[in-house]
Amino acid sequence: MRYSAWGLLRGALSGQRHWPQAWRDAVPKPRYDVIIVGGGGHGLAAAYYLAKNHGIDKVAVIERGWIGGGNTGRNTTIVRSNYLFPESARLYDFSLQLYESLSQALNFNIMLSQRGLVMLAHSRHDLDAMSRWANAMRMNGIAAELLTRDQVGALAPALDLSPQARLPVLGGFTQRRAGTARHDAVAWGYARAASALGVDIIQNCEVVDFIKQDGRVAGVSTSRGRIGAERVGIAAAGHSSVLAKLAGFRLPVTSYALQAMVSEPIKPVLDTVILSPGTGAYVSQSDKGEIVMGAMLDLFPSYAQRGSFAVKQAIIAATLELFPSFSRLNLMRQWAGIVDVVHDSSPIIGPTPIPNLYINCGWGTGGFKAIPVGGWTLAHVLATQKSHPLAEAFQLERFVTGRLIDEAAASGIAH
Asked: Which pLDDT does position 124 carry in this prediction?
């Protein structure tokens, strides 16, 4: 959608009253082919790909709050595919490939910035582990480069590389295709594109129960009435276990708060993403100039979107050890997302024990980077009732067979 300079000025001066809606704010219909519970990135992407890839446009996305108001708007916007196992590498790199062409596909600028990701090594043990990690990535067909201490310093000059540093930097490795994207733009782009294809996006509509007929899911009961459907998909991140309980089964998922925060904006000083696995800190600079700081999990189950002071204090301390010059900045905002962590730190994508009910969950701290592939694979199973090849290894049944894919080491944050 294009606007003239005068059109933009007129819209701004009128309080945006004359701007067209990016998507239709739909009223629930009595019945759909597919209902997706959750209006975050994964749910919106699944709706878009159902219509785009499979021609199914009688789809409703039901969101308890507002579009992108959950984890999609509460993260550090990092995209990467530096995972260890072949199954994970294929999954996350396909997602990164979709991100690389997403602005063109959606005709909406998601502000993808492939500025690269640098993992820091603070010990000889870290160096050995990163060497194995980089080699695993190469074996999976994903480019990775080991870095010396000086090469790390060239990519991030603001790092403290002095001999007196409490967190010495001995080297690291980088994935240069990694980077960041604008989180709300991803949600808005998928919402607009899905709506244009006929998908109904229904906000402020809470699912309170599942409708069942002969043991099969046949729709949902909501705060705005009953809505029937042939199939239902759940894409509700940290609240997946709550919805599973409503449906009558249990998920191997625990929900935790994952914090992030931003400083006041400053001039450009950091043009890559820095991740320190040894401390749990990850740092980047936004397009607005804010220093974005991510943290480790609050390791007690919680549905609160705030996190604890102890973790906030620890991550600020680690960030300042890495970047002493940031000590003069004012902290502007802090938040937390609710992440759904599975025992093997890998997602669950596919059918549930309840017929006609499918789920996309368990992304832990990696949900944002996986939005395109999460939507792509959930749409595939909802449309065909067969798991996509990329998702075959990530079924619920792996917790019965024991064929787990333990990606805790590559998650970047201890799970």
From this structure: 95
